[in-house]
Amino acid sequence: xxxISVLIADDHEIVRFGISTYLSSAKDIEIVGEASxxxxxxxxxxxxxxxxxxxxxxxxxxxGIETAKEIRELEEDxxxxxxxxxxxxNILREALEVNVNGYLLKNTEKADLLHGIRAIxxxxxxxxxxxxxLMKESFLRKNNQGGNYDHQQITDREQExxxxxxxxxxxxxxxxxxxxSPRTVDTHRANLxxxxxxxxxxxxxxxxxxxxxxxxx
Length: 217
Description:
Helices cover about 55% and strands about 15% of the residues. It has about 220 residues and is α/β, with parallel strands linked by helices. The chain has a six-stranded parallel beta sheet with strand order 2-1-3-4-5-6, with helices on both faces. Helix 3 (about 65-75) links the parallel strand 3 and strand 4. Helix 7 (about 155-165) packs across helix 9 (about 180-195), helix 7 crosses helix 10 (about 200-210) and helix 8 crosses helix 9.
């Protein structure tokens, strides 16, 4: 089985040790680095180019959100999983704005963490139940405030891109599939979020699914 390379960043050594020890027991997981600060994580990331980064929120220097943002700028396709004790609307909003692939709380069962990593690498999004509840609450509030949108304003190309976003493809992958530039993909995505008055990809995906704008396999 192909290995999934993982970089762990957490300022608590015992937490890093516990996560690393458990994940290393899985045959398809390879721990390629452990960092205690955001800066150290970025350095190790550039050296190891992991498939997925597991980031704590609270770290000395760059916090987890800032670290995730820099990782996104370095390599857009890298998967990012936030693993934190915090369940906070502001932090969640910031994490979603960086387009993290998952957000799990540290009281998550070990097996669920491993399952989450595998799911994220396959292109899925993974969130702890309390995090999903916060996202749902935010979505419903926006829906109630925003009223009904005219979905006919969505062009055929935007619809095509929306489907691929929900399928879990990155801007680069969508661009290659549709023979357009990643910048064009980003423009269409921004137009979609503006038309639907949504703030981030997670909201866009949830909205598209709940309003039957896309097909789900």
